[in-house]
Specification:
The complex is a heterodimer of chains A (about 350) and B (about 375). Chain A is mostly helical. Chain A has helices spanning about 5-30, 40-60, 60-85, 90-115, 125-145, 145-150, 165-170, 175-180, 185-205, 205-215, 220-225, 230-255, 265-275, 280-300, 315-330, and strands at about 160, 185, 305, 310. The chains are: A mainly alpha (about 350), B mainly alpha (about 375). Chain A: Keywords: Cell membrane, Membrane, Transmembrane, Transmembrane helix.
């Protein structure tokens, strides 16, 4: 395996870990505030669908991104209503959200595009042009044809080349690493990585973060201090919705070009696994999702990994994140202790 | 004092939840430009309008009775088993291994053997999550989710690399021997002299499912073990104080739950497909959650809810066939039923309780 192959695998790992990282951080906010969230998968799926749909209808990925965020937030609202307002079972609510997204995306997708649940491909071309024609027509009535054409010209997230990427390329090892692995991703990848220190700072260095963590450990104490448990938990659930929205939008408009049925393919659950792996900590989330992204990248590249003595089948590679999580949960490699008030609705004393 | 009469708790709350779920589903159908009334008519006609429709409805219901009972038994021990999907898949493996390795001459011998295989494999797949929950405190919901994925990967590997007959391309096992075919209900009707449900997959496992309902009722409400399970589910400290061993109850409840989920395979794998195919469970494990919630965690309720979901499943298939509404409508309805009967239970229950309290207050005055 030469340097080039390693770089390609790392590059692919960075792309694949991005939705996992965003979803994992989403789960982190929610669960740190004491609201279990097994609906990450559903929220991502809804966001991916809304983002791809709006991007396909308008030709503008940014409008798609907004739609993705809204789609995910809508399901967050359902989760908040069920698990905070009506003090229902948070796990059951999460299960319901996953099914809701899985069914609704196909139902609406079939209604809008008639393609059996997928959206048209987001690559610029004739198919997309006919699709976005009504929107451009409507827009050019308001802003003029030039602006309308320009606004509808970027249906996908474009890759950004970081400054000096080509200049530094000749530098051994570091140069190609910078040019191929670090540079050349879409903006959401960098947003995801920036979210890690930001989340750390919010959780451990701000008043909001302190209260958020407290409400997940001992909501009664937060209540006694005169801070609304309900409002804090709703804030956490909403942040989780936004982050899942970013994850889904990246999946449909960055990683691939369009939405296909069930495209999250268990990523929400891998993110959940990564969260446990990370012991509910932001930097841990970075490490865990990188590990799982790397596993997926390696499995994609070598469907049957030949290690000389044994050949590892691809099914084993795809099951590895789940197996690792069970081992971690079993407490054989360091214990993962969830926030203490997780999963329990808070009942104010009367 | 009870806040509302028992009949309201058992009948009214699930019915109102169902009406709410159906109402929102009707709005969804309206939103995609179809008529909810026509959709319902198509579903009723397709699922209940002929013995053919009934044959499929009862076949699906059989699957859901098993998975619903599985969720229910665990729920009484306060364990939320989302692993029915993986346990049922493993049950299928158990059935396939028994039927492919033992040359059994008659279905009456093959059925008990396959049941043992199905239940043993399903239970074994639930054992590790149960043990981890009981001994190491790992959350059963997370471990059972993980085990669903691990089961899917393992089954994929086993079918492609081990059970696939030489020369075959699809990832499925060979056919089970002819002698082990379960009698279909249609054959039984014919031998009694009338024609009913020709070419439908409903088979003798339906009766096994009904018997399972009765046995689970006896177990939970009429046996010492059932009492221990319920006591443990209601209050762990109280159960501990009464000398009930939490590890034992957790493991036993999950073994029974996994075994029941695994038993689904005698209907789908042995009774219908007659070989083990990839993804033989088709989401029935998850529908078990909706069935148990809807059925108020009582075998009779589970039976009725399984019939309802059997109807939805078959009706949904007919919808996809005759209208432009995709099959996935059923997943939306399923999600809404889970949401209203499970997570938004208080939304329905609290106003109802208020109404009953007010009525009682007036009667007293």
């Amino acid at each position: 395996m030469d340097l080039n192959t390693i770089l390609q695998i790392l590059d692919s790992a960075v792309r694949l870990m991005t939705p996992l990282l965003l979803a994992c951080l989403a789960g982190l906010y929610s669960e740190r505030a004491g609201v279990f969230d097994i609906g990450l998968e559903g929220k991502m799926l809804m966001a991916a669908f809304s983002a791809a749909t709006v991007a396909a209808l308008t030709g503008n990925v940014w409008l798609g991104l907004v739609a993705g965020l809204l789609g995910s937030l809508m399901l967050s609202a359902v989760h908040g209503l069920a698990s905070i307002t009506f003090r229902g079972n948070q796990l059951i609510s999460g299960v319901a959200i996953n099914f809701l997204a899985s069914g609704l995306t196909v139902l609406l997708g079939q209604k809008i595009f008639g393609l059996g649940g997928r959206t048209p491909s987001l690559t610029p071309g004739a198919e997309l042009d006919t699709q976005t024609a009504p929107f451009r027509g409507w827009l050019s009535g308001i802003t003029g044809p030039d602006t309308a054409g320009w606004l509808a010209a970027a249906p996908r997230l474009t890759d950004i080349t970081l400054p000096l990427a080509e200049t530094l390329r000749p530098v051994p090892v570091v140069g190609p690493l910078y040019a191929d692995v670090i540079s050349g991703h879409s903006i959401l990848v960098y947003v995801a990585f920036a979210m890690v220190p930001l989340t750390w700072w919010i959780l451990y260095r701000t008043r909001f973060g302190l209260r958020l963590r407290a409400v997940g450990e001992n909501p009664a104490s937060v209540d006694t201090a005169g801070v609304s448990v309900t409002r804090l938990r709703f804030a956490a659930v909403a942040i989780a919705g936004l982050l899942c929205g970013l994850a889904g939008a990246y999946l449909a408009t960055g990683l691939s070009a369009g939405f296909v049925k069930e495209m999250t393919a268990g990523r929400g659950f891998i993110a959940l696994a990564a969260l446990i792996f990370a012991k509910w900590r932001p930097w841990g989330a970075l490490g865990a999702t990188f590990l799982f992204g790397l596993l997926e990248a390696v499995a994609n590249r070598y469907p049957n990994l030949d290690l000389g003595i044994v050949t590892v089948p691809s099914m084993f590679m795809s099951a590895l994140p789940y197996i690792l999580t069970v081992i971690i949960l079993a407490g054989f490699v360091g214990r993962a202790i969830p926030p203490r008030a997780g999963g329990e609705p808070y009942v104010k004393e009367r | 004092m009870e806040k509302m009469p028992k009949w309201a708790d058992v009948l009214l709350t699930p019915l109102i939840s169902l009406v709410l779920a159906m109402g929102i589903s009707a709005l969804v159908i309206l939103a995609i430009g179809e008529s909810p009334v026509e959709a319902l008519a198509t579903m009723i006609d397709g699922a209940l309008g002929s013995s053919y429709g009934w044959g499929f409805t009862l076949y699906y219901a059989t699957n859901f009775i098993f998975t619903g009972l599985a969720v229910m038994v665990a729920y009484h021990a306060s364990l939320f088993n989302i692993g029915g999907e993986g346990q049922a898949a493993m049950g299928g493996l158990g059935v396939a291994l028994v039927l492919l390795s033992l040359p059994l001459p008659h279905w009456a011998l093959a059925l008990p053997a396959a049941m043992i295989g199905a239940a043993a494999f399903g239970a074994a797949w639930a054992l590790i999550p149960a043990w981890l929950q009981a001994r190491r405190g790992s959350h059963i919901v997370i471990t059972t989710i993980m085990f669903n994925f691990i089961a899917a990967a393992a089954l994929n590997y086993i079918l492609v690399n081990l059970l696939r007959p030489v020369g075959s391309m699809d990832p499925a096992s060979g056919r089970f021997p002819e002698t082990t075919q379960l009698p279909k209900l249609s054959d039984m009707a014919l031998s009694l002299g009338f024609e009913w449900g020709r070419n439908t997959p409903v088979n003798v496992s339906f009766f096994v499912a009904v018997i399972a309902c009765v046995l689970v009722w006896l177990l939970i409400w009429r046996s010492r073990l059932g009492f221990e399970i319920r006591a443990f589910g209601k209050s762990e400290p109280a159960a501990l104080y009464a000398g009930i061993n939490p590890v034992r109850i957790t493991v036993i409840a999950m073994l029974m739950s996994g075994g029941l989920a695994g038993l689904m395979a005698i209907n789908s794998v042995m009774g219908e497909a007659e070989r083990l195919v990839l993804n033989a469970v088709e989401g029935a494990g998850f529908i078990g959650i909706a069935v148990a919630l809807m059925g108020r965690n009582h075998p009779l309720g589970v039976f009725l809810a399984a019939l309802l979901f059997g109807f939805l499943y078959q009706g949904g298939g007919e919808l996809a066939l005759w209208t432009s509404i995709p099959r996935e409508l059923i997943i939306v309805i399923q999600a809404l039923v889970i949401l209203f009967t499970g997570a938004l239970d208080n939304m329905v229950r609290v106003p109802l309780e208020r109404i009953f309290m007010a009525m009682r207050g007036r009667r007293k005055a």
